[in-house]
Amino acid sequence: MSLSVLLPAAGLGERLGRGPKAFLEVGGKTLLEHALSAFAWAGEVLVALPPGYPQPPRSGVRFVAGGPTRQQSVWNMLREATGDVVLVHDVARPFVVREAVERLLKAVSETGAATLAIPVPDTLVEEQSGSYGAVIPRERYRLVQTPQGFRRELLLEAHREAIRLGQDYSDDAQAVLALGYPVALVEGDRRMFKLTYPEDLDLAEGLARTWNC
Ligand code: C5P
Questions:
Q1: How far is CA 209 from CA 28, 37, 50, 57, 92, in A?
Q2: How far is the CA of 42 from the CAs of 32, 60, 83, 151, 168, in angstroms?
Q3: How far is the CA of 91 from the centre of ligand 1 (A)?
Q4: Residue of the CA atom closest to atom 19 of ligand 1
Q5: Where is this site: Positions MEP for the nucleophilic attack (predicted)?
Q6: In 3D, which of 80, 190, 100, 180 has the Cα closest to residue 148?
Q7: For the whole prediction, is pTM greater than 0.90?
C-alpha cells in the first residue's frame, strides 16, 4: 500500500494574527518543519503553500500553490498525488503522535476512510444571546483532528462531487461522508491540537520543551 501525505499549509492564520501559520516558529522550528519531520518516513509528501510564498529548500517534497480555501488547497495536492492511500494533515497541528497515526493507518487499510477524533472534555452548551442555553450531551460528540486518511480514489471522487455541488467543507471527512461513505473515528490525542488563537502559542511552546514523540 503506497502512501501520499498531503500537508495543507496555505492558510493565512487570520485568527492568530501572526501571518501564515506554516512559517510560525514553535520550539525553534516552523510549523511546516514540524510536519515535514513528522512525516519524513512517508514515500510521497506534498505541501500546499500560500501562493507567492517561497518554497523552503527540502528535497523529496513537492510544493504546490494553495487555494483560497482549505478544500481547494487539498484538491491542488490531491490531483498530483499518486499513493493508493492519502493522509491529509493540517500543518497547524505541529505535535504528531506516531501511535495515533499508526492507529489511523490501520483503520484506513480496513475501512478506506478514517479520521482521528477525541472526546469533548468540557460541558457543552448552546449559547443563547450571551447566556447559558441548552446543555448538549457531550458523550455523543467528538472533536475532529487530523490526519485523516482515505483511499485516494475515494477522496478524489469526494472532492470532484464537492466541486460539482459547489460545497466547501472544512475537512475531508465531510466530503467523503457526503458521498454516502462512512468515515471511521479513531482515537486521537489531545496533544495534536490545532494552533488557532494567540494563547495556543504558549501551550505549544510549553509542549515543545518536552516533546519527543
Ligand atoms: O484555518 P484553519 O486553521 O482551520 O486551517 C487548517 C489548515 O488548512 C491549516 O494547516 C492551514 O494552513 C490550511 N489551509 C490551507 N489553505 C487555505 C486555508 C487553510 O492550506 N486556503
A1: 10, 16, 29, 26, 18
A2: 15, 10, 10, 16, 28
A3: 8
A4: 11
A5: 138, 194
A6: 100
A7: yes
In one-letter notation, the amino acid at residue 27 is G
Domain that holds residue 39: 3-210
pLDDT in tens, 85-100: 999 999 999 999 999 9
pLDDT tens-digit readout, 15-25: 887 888 899 99
The 10 Å CB-count burial string (b at 16+, else e) for 86-119 is bbbbbbbbbbbbeebbebbbebbeebbbbbbbbe
Residue recorded with cell 510564498: 53
- According to DSSP, residue 76 is labeled H
CATH number at residue 19: 3.90.550.10
Q: Among 106, 190, 182, 197, which Cα is nearest to 145's?
A: 190
Mutate to test the pocket of ligand 1, among 71, 90, 174, 196 (most ligand atoms within 8 A of CB): 90
ipTM above 0.90, yes or no: yes
Q: Which of 39, 160, 141, 143 is nearest to 88 (CA)?
A: 39
